[in-house]
Amino acid sequence: KKDSFLIGRVFNMFGLIIALISRSFKSIQGVFNTEVTKQSSTWTTSTFVQATGFLACLLIWLIAEGSESFYDAFKRSAQDTLLLGGVIGAAITFTVIKSVASLGPAQSAMLIVASQSVVSYLIEVFGLFGVEKTAFAWVKLLGVVLFVTGLIIFKWKS
Fold first, then answer.
1. Which pLDDT tens digit goes with each residue over 121-137?
2. The overall pTM is greater than 0.85
3. Which of 112, 105, 116, 97 is nearest to 40 (CA)?
4. Quick check: 72 pLDDT over 80?
5. How far apart are the first and last CA of the chain?
């Protein structure tokens, strides 16, 4: 039992590290995309970002899973609507560019993470999109309220 507890902790730590890396990449990407947009347009930048992301994913897929057919990968999808992640990705790229340009990287990132936290918690509580439904917890709501309060304090001009 002690070994399974330790294994669970290691995987939780791995998830934590990956999440931190992910958000760091998102912040850096938002700044890069906003700077590129200053020299072109939002949709040019978004197209380039999505196209290069597609090519990177295609290359990694071919190397890692090349034996599996592309059609079979889509055939296994539980819901066709879940395949709209790329469309959502384009919307994310567009909105992050506009947010960073308008608010700056720090405020933009904090608001994006706050919104992401609220929406993710609602997805869990209501069991949306095939996610396992979890019970509502007041302490988690309090965490979100404290997070938003921190944003207000950060924004507060002295």
1. 899 999 988 889 999 99
2. no
3. 97
4. no
5. 53
